[in-house]
Design goal:
The structure holds two protein chains of two kinds. Chain A contains 14 helices and 14 strands. Chain A is an alpha+beta fold. In chain A, the strands form five sheets. A four-stranded antiparallel sheet of chain A has the order 3-2-1-14, covered by helices on one side. A three-stranded antiparallel sheet of chain A has the order 6-7-8, with helices on one face. Classes of the chains: A alpha+beta, B alpha/beta.
Chain lengths: ~425, ~150
């Protein structure tokens, strides 16, 4: 890092994922009081996986796409299963669907807690990271690790294992857990629900930068439940479509200066997916406890300050624990545990709410079940343009900060989105140049 | 009790060093901790271990296939070797966290293989591939020493 007393041009740059150089990074140039340029590029493994999927059997898509992310494998599994089930004309029996939703609740808990407590909270508290936080507040980090483990355990029991679960398949699960197996999860989930309530109260006390955006929110909606593993795609701008209509309304376009694709919603432009969007569009479907805690910490009906996304994640963690307990309470082990999938030529679409936002898949298969084409649109790439917009807005309001403070503020802004590069923004480097 | 944690992705060129060495270690009957992308899960698995051998690809500018062996003692793991294979929490961070919480192995050893290419879909570099049997044998020897 270099600096000068009277900088006329300031550049902020991150080189994350040093091992995969050239695949991602952030760059900001400020001249005087003007933010001249912002580039935010993300690492996009799904592009590689789309190519890898061609020629593979349709039943392999869940296992293969689960490898895209070790944090949110259920999102990829569920979206690909939904798409294949749509092609094959399968409708899941209720208990089988709820098992998938239960695994997803586990993923929301583990992913939200990992991000909110271990990666995001230290930002607000002035710590470099969870390690430094743990030295001062061991109790908090121990609680977060136990909470996260509660989510992992749900994924273990339903999915076979938490990292790259193997028990979930097109049409259901290879083996449905017994009722006693799920009942055994109840005490820890009850503890998790209570701890998540306390966690929400804690993160709500953080000092949030004063910044709001009038986002176009996009999320799934399913009447009667807080949409996770199924639903129609809706927006705060009035969109209400079946997941199969996604490409008629959303466009991915190449950006000249990078290999990344920017997603836009027709007639709207950039948009936002993830916790803020889900909350704005579906908070009325949260459980009474989650609604109660959201009201208690003053969230209101819509949250437009992205820094407060940590509070929404905490509320969603309460909901996920609550919903997992609800599913377990009514659970009866389904027999059979899956509907056999018979391939037929066609195209299927699937979309589910990954912890970071909607994860949309399209597959074309032939009559033998061979995948002819695959398209995967992950949440972070959909948020990419909005993240850039936020960085511009935040930097513009923060020019009075020192270079170090400004770099930290940019890190925090990116981390609001829980992008698939969260930790990497620790490598943020600020450069100041004289013009 | 001694075990190895092998890091990396099979799909990302030389980043496959960890998983490919893990295959060899399992075949030899050694204890290998599952890790993949989320190393805070290792905190429980490695608590109380006498020795944890971390196997990973590294990117430090040495010729491809160069084997690095590093014993950090009580000091931090070498971030500058490029030991940052995760996108959420790196193994060096997880180890530091474990130390702060009293949940770390008694001794850690890092065995790294210098890689050349880490892009999605790339094959493993021949010089890296040629080093893997030797690395696996060395790790097995470390794990079986009294």
């Amino acid at each position: 890092m270099s600096s000068s007393d009277t900088p006329t041009t300031r550049e902020i740059r991150t080189d994350y994922l040093a091992r995969v150089e050239g695949e991602g990074g952030m760059f900001v140039r400020v001249r005087g009081d003007e933010v001249e340029e912002v580039q935010f590029k993300i690492f996009e493994p799904p592009r590689f996986f789309e190519a890898l999927l061609r020629g593979r059997q349709f039943t392999e898509a869940p296992d293969i796409t689960a490898r895209i992310c070790g944090i949110c494998p259920i999102a990829y599994i569920a979206s690909s299963c939904n798409a294949m089930e749509a092609v094959c004309g399968i409708e899941l029996p209720e208990q089988v669907r709820l098992l998938r939703r239960l695994a997803y609740c586990g993923e929301w808990i583990e992913s939200h807690v990992l991000h909110a407590a271990m990666l995001h909270a230290p930002d607000f508290l002035g710590y470099a990271g969870a390690v430094e936080l743990a030295r001062d507040r061991r109790d908090l980090v121990e609680t977060a690790l136990r909470l996260k483990k509660a989510g992992n355990t749900v994924m273990d029991v339903v999915g076979g294992r938490a990292v790259h679960p193997v028990n979930l398949r097109v049409g259901g699960t290879f083996r449905a857990p017994s009722r006693p197996e799920l009942q055994a999860l109840v005490p820890e989930l009850e503890w998790a629900r209570e701890s998540a309530v306390e966690f929400t109260r804690w993160v709500a006390t953080f000092d949030f930068p004063d910044y709001e955006q009038d986002y176009a929110f996009v999320a799934l909606r399913q009447p009667g439940e807080y949409a996770i593993e199924r639903g129609r795609i809706v927006s705060s701008t009035g969109l209400d479509i079946d997941v199969s209509e996604y490409e008629q309304h959303f466009t991915e376009s190449h950006v000249e200066r990078s290999n990344a694709l920017h997603s836009t919603l027709a007639g709207v432009g950039n948009y936002l997916v993830g916790p803020l969007a889900r909350y704005a569009l579906n908070s009325g479907e949260l459980s009474p406890l989650a609604r109660e805690i959201a009201a208690e910490v003053g969230l209101g009906d819509v949250v437009r300050n992205p820094f407060r996304s940590i509070v929404v994640r905490a509320v969603e963690t309460v909901y996920a624990a609550d919903e997992a307990l609800r599913i377990i309470a009514q659970y009866e082990s389904p027999e059979p545990s899956f509907i056999p999938a018979v391939p037929r030529a066609g195209t299927g679409h699937g979309c589910t709410e990954a912890p970071r936002g909607i994860c949309w898949h399209r597959y074309e298969i032939d009559g033998e079940g061979s995948i002819l084409d695959a398209k995967i649109v992950p949440p972070t790439s959909q948020n990419q343009k909005t993240i850039e917009q936020d960085i511009v807005g935040v930097v513009r309001r923060s020019l009075h900060l020192t270079d170090e403070e400004l770099a930290h503020r940019c890190e925090l802004t990116i981390r609001n989105y829980d992008p698939c590069i969260s930790c990497a923004t620790h490598f943020l480097r600020l450069e100041v140049e004289r013009a | 009790m001694k075990a190895a944690a092998c890091l990396g992705s099979r799909y990302r060129g030389d980043d496959a060093v960890g998983p490919l060495v893990a295959d060899r270690l399992r075949a030899a009957g050694a204890a290998v901790l599952e890790c993949d992308d989320e190393p805070t899960r290792l905190l429980e698995a490695w608590t109380g271990l006498d020795l944890l051998v971390i196997v990973d690809a590294v990117s430090s500018g040495s010729p491809p296939g160069t084997v690095h062996r590093f014993d950090p003692g009580d000091g931090p793991l070498p971030h500058d070797l490029g030991l940052a294979s995760t996108h959420a929490f790196s193994v060096p961070e997880a180890l530091e966290l474990g130390r702060a919480l009293g949940r770390a192995p008694r001794r850690v050893l890092v065995v790294g293989v210098e890689g050349a290419s880490f892009r999605m879909g790339d094959p493993v570099t021949p010089a890296v591939d040629a080093a893997l049997d030797g690395v696996a044998a060395a790790v097995v020897a470390e794990l079986s020493e009294d």
